[in-house]
Specification:
alpha+beta; 17 helices; 5 strands; 64% helix
Length: 456
Amino acid sequence: MGAGASATNCETLPIDRPEAQTFVPILEQSLDAMKRSRVLTPEQRRELRKALEQGSKMYETIISAAPQHQAELKNIKKEQMIAFQEIYAAVYKNKVRTDPNFETFIETCTEISKQVEGKNIDQTCSNDVRGLIELYEKGAVPLLNEFTILLKKMAKETGAKQIPSGSLKKLPRALEKIMFEPGPSKGNSSICRDVLRGMIIYEDMYSLTNGLEFIRNHPAWELVRVKNRFDSPTDGGWADCLLNVVKKSDRNCHVAEIQLVHEILYAARKNMGGHRDYHEYRCANELVANLNANSAQANGGNGTKTDILLADLDKQFHQAKASPGKKDTKLLKQLKSQIESLKDLRTHYGEFRAQAKQLQSDLDTAMDRDDFDKVEEIQTKIDTVNNEIKKYESFINLPEKFLEENGMQQNLMGQVNKENTLTQPNTVVKNELCKLTPKQRLDAYEARMEEINLNR
């Protein structure tokens, strides 16, 4: 039984469910239409909006049903993960890590990561599922040819094994990805930063390093983020390097992805087959991430770090009130102030999201009526609201930063229960790994692979 079956009582993956057939064909046809004509007709756009809304409802249903199948989902994830790890870990240890230029690549990648840290990766689109239309129609599709030219030039000049082409992420998968995103970003199209993507395969780490340097020094494309999974492989054992780039002249700031892959790891993945097995693993993994986020809910919250922190502060507040003897009024005032500030933060964030949703609906109506003066007016309002949402979203995900900017960080850090971390377990592990040297991280990864194999 697949991951979709576990979560939905159906012998298929989500994309194969009967109700998916009401919207998946429209998503596929819409992408084909954009590839041909670049721009959708008003009627095609209406159909696509409707299909995206139907799809989001199906995924909401799947997510809602997932808690009933939590054990099955985790078992699927574990079984498939071990199968992938056995192959990838052996290749990684014996072939990739032993490359004489491996450490040079890691050092170069770390240096470049620090240089691009904090760069803007916000894309211009609405923050709901309908924003996918903008990502494709205004962002990815118009840039496809230029991006392909970039990839081909990069491959030729840096010693790649083949000459790649740019590609567009399938719309059904893009919808699934943003709907399975845990926390407040669920359904937010702007998080999908690989709609326009390409893979470049290299035979050694020396050529991979050349690829990094090529993008770092490119005059027309800006490197805005690096995700080095050679340094910290995925739970499934896969290792690569993901580069997010933006065309400097693109006013929509569309973020594309270049995947740098080692030839021998790519061959291992290709020879494994089992494409459906990978889909099951990915689906189960994303649903488990949703379950982990939802388990952290505080009194109906959204499972964000703000919700987790609020629950902890509220608990401390009531414990302090109920403690015998003389009350620590200073502590009570501090806790109450922190709680009220975070509640206000969450309320304002929700209000802006609701406002954005209403404005998007108004924009759709104005577009359908060809009232372009109104469209221009609403778009200006949407830009303003989306900027506020991004600001609040950064605080929602980093409540300690919000409290620090409001002069409460010192109090907060002195009161939060150390056992009640503000992040999910996997994030804590990754944060701890970041404190290690590259070699120590690799040793930790190898030990984790061996432990899994020993416990089979």
